[in-house]
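Researcher: Go.
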Amino acid sequence: MKATATPATAEGRVRSSSAATTRRIGRRLGRAAQPGTCLALVGPLGAGKTQLAKGVAWGLGVPGVVNSPTFIIVNEHAGRLPLFHVDAYRLADGGEARQAGAFDERQAQGVTVIEWAERLDGWLPPDHLRIEITADATLPNLRLLRWRATGPRHAHLSQVLDLSETP
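Model: Structure:
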């Protein structure tokens, strides 16, 4: 079943000057995450989606290495809350994502981070935090993270992003 679009309840942007800073932003999100948090990451190859996901894992207390699950679609990691790390790069749409097991009822008890989330537009939960990451063409390490909370459950994360100290 497709979800309908929901207007933004909070939006903004934050800059990151390095992969380490992007991970620190993710860590703040991971620390503030609650059961049912869904982070929809959008951006071109190399933008920093996986770095942000690694930071979320760090904030959730996930031990070990967190890499993008490109070939297996979903990795589940144990932490303060379970982390469901989804990579939609190889998926055509949300229907294929459901068939591949990218979404299930367990995610309501954990945190879901979806890389290449634009491939699942229309299939994401109505209440999620969409973060679009873009690189600066002239400054290779500079990233702009534009975020939009599409419901009240994720609007609280805007405070974490508004307070992010990024050089």
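Model: The radius of gyration is 14 Å.
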